[in-house]
Description:
By secondary structure, the chain is an alpha/beta fold. Helices cover 33% and strands 24% of the residues. Strands 8-9-10-7-11-12-13-14 form an 8-stranded mixed sheet, with helices on one face. Strands 3-2-1-4-5-6 form a 6-stranded parallel sheet, sandwiched between helices. Helix 4 runs parallel beside helix 5 (103-116) and helix 5 packs antiparallel against helix 10. Residues 332-338 have low confidence and may be disordered.
Amino acid sequence: MERPVRWGVLATGGIAAAFTADLQGLPDAEVVAVASRTLASAKGFAGRFGIPRAYGSWAELAADPDVDVVYVATPHAAHRAAAGLCLEAGRAVLCEKAFTLNAREAAELAGLARSRGSFLMEAMWMYCDPLVRRLTELVRDGALGEIRTVQADFGLAGPFAAGHRLLDPAQGGGALLDLGVYPVSFAQLLLGEPDRVRAEARLSPEGVDLDTSMLLGWESGATALLSCSVTADTPRTAAVTGTAGRIEIPRGFFQPERFVLHRDGREPEEFTAGQYGSGLRGMQYEAAEVMRAVRAGETESPLVPLEGTLAVMRTLDAVRERTGVRYPADTGPAGDRG
């Protein structure tokens, strides 16, 4: 076995804990350090997961020469600063989604990584899931014919207390960046960047989106009907329909346990997670892909390429432009997309 890839974890919240638990289930991964804005938080996290070093600042983690890859798990308003700090220090970076607050920040991170020859990947774990990869292969191999529609939704019921980050524009609050990124990423995984973006949203008094509906269109004639919410527990399902069949994914489409392929003139075919991989929460697949790429000397993952991440961020910007959601970090309106 090769030397374990040594990881640093930047932030100590729930998503950091979930990722670290999955990461420690991989035999060729080693979590060697954790950082938080406070040393007490870092030490508490380190004790929980048996991590040898705890830092009270991001800069100390970025400077640790024993860290090969940093997993950035802060809220997305801090992704640009945290990931940029680690890239400048020469670390490979896996950065949570939404990748940044806007497409401008995403392009800055991608440019920084490319200029330094450093590995950078968005933590869109859905793209690395073996069952999602199988679904994508079926679609690209023509199992459904030409794609006509994609449908997907992701909503949580809330309510969220005043001051919660999901209601704070300064922290990139709202349904879109936290939850809508999944339906948008799913549609663009199958169809690429849309040519047209339409959107409607209900905004909070603070100006973030509470419920958002999106209609994306492509020159091929394909459309995607997508939605997200922080006020309603939506079905969280997805469906892809083509000229020769359809795929239906039940609740939890972003980490599916199964999907069903329906094709004209054939019995339905069920594909299950157990056929392609099982165990842990599902984040181990993106971690394994990062380690494979880093060991191979790659600076991007073919499963989660930076161009795809940038395309998703451009779509999210376009949705915000159409729904009137603005963050303090935005320096100007998102570009018009028709």
